[in-house]
Design goal:
The protein is mainly alpha-helical and 178 residues long. It has a domain of 103 residues: Orthogonal Bundle (Arc Repressor Mutant, subunit A). A hairpin with a 2-residue loop joins strand 1 and strand 2. Helix 1 runs antiparallel to helix 3 and helix 5 crosses helix 6. It is globular, with a radius of gyration of 19 Å.
Length: 178
C-alpha cells in the first residue's frame, strides 16, 4: 500500500464511476477532508482516521439506501453465514457488543428480517426470507464498496493489505502494555 505523505490523501474513483452530487454534506466532509498531520506520523492515528471515515460513510449509505444502521448491517451480514445461531454468536461474528447486538436484533425482528427459533433450551436467530433478500442486496453493495475502496490495488496487494491489517489487530494485545 502506497501513501503519499505530506499530500492530501483522497481516494480517486475511476472516471467511469461518477461522484454522487446527492451525497449528504456530512458524508462529503468526512470522506473528502484532508488528513490531519498526525495521521501521517502515527500508524494508529492513520488507521483510526480511516476507520472513522469508513464508519461514517457506511452509516450514511446504509441508512439512506435501506434505512438500517451499521450495527443492523453487520448483524445481517454475519447472520448470512449461518443458517441459525445464538445472539452471542451473531454478536461475535459481527464484532459488536452483545448489548448493541441485542437491541439491533430486536429492531431487525420488529422489521421482519430475523426470527427466533427455539433449539432445546436455547433461543437461536435466523434470517427470514425478507432478511435473506436484504442480506443479498447488502452483500452486493458491500462487494462494490470494497472494490471501490481497493481500487488501483492488485489482487495480491489486497490480500497483503488484509493480512497486514489482521496482523495489526493481533498486535493490539501488545500495544497497551507498559
Amino acid at each position: 500500500m502506497r501513501l503519499l505523505m505530506g499530500q492530501q490523501s483522497r481516494m480517486r474513483l475511476p472516471a467511469t464511476t461518477p461522484r454522487s452530487a446527492a451525497r449528504p454534506e456530512a458524508e462529503v466532509q468526512a470522506v473528502d477532508r484532508q488528513l490531519p498531520p498526525l495521521a501521517h506520523d502515527y500508524t494508529a492515528w492513520l488507521i483510526t482516521s480511516l476507520a472513522a471515515r469508513l464508519s461514517r460513510g457506511a452509516s450514511s449509505y446504509y441508512a439512506r439506501e435501506w434505512n438500517i444502521g451499521s450495527t443492523e448491517y453487520r448483524l445481517l451480514m454475519a447472520l448470512g453465514h449461518e443458517d441459525v445461531c445464538s445472539a452471542i454468536s451473531a454478536a461475535t461474528a459481527a464484532d459488536i457488543d452483545k448489548a448493541a447486538a441485542s437491541r439491533s436484533l430486536q429492531v431487525l425482528q420488529g422489521e421482519g428480517l430475523v426470527e427466533t427459533v427455539r433449539r432445546g433450551r436455547e433461543m437461536q436467530i435466523r434470517l427470514t426470507a425478507d432478511g435473506r433478500s436484504l442480506r443479498s442486496k447488502l452483500k452486493a453493495a458491500s462487494d462494490r464498496r470494497d472494490r471501490r475502496l481497493t481500487h488501483g490495488l492488485s489482487p495480491a496487494e489486497v490480500a497483503r493489505l488484509r493480512a497486514d491489517l489482521c496482523r495489526l489487530i493481533d498486535n493490539l494485545t501488545f500495544m497497551n502494555q507498559g
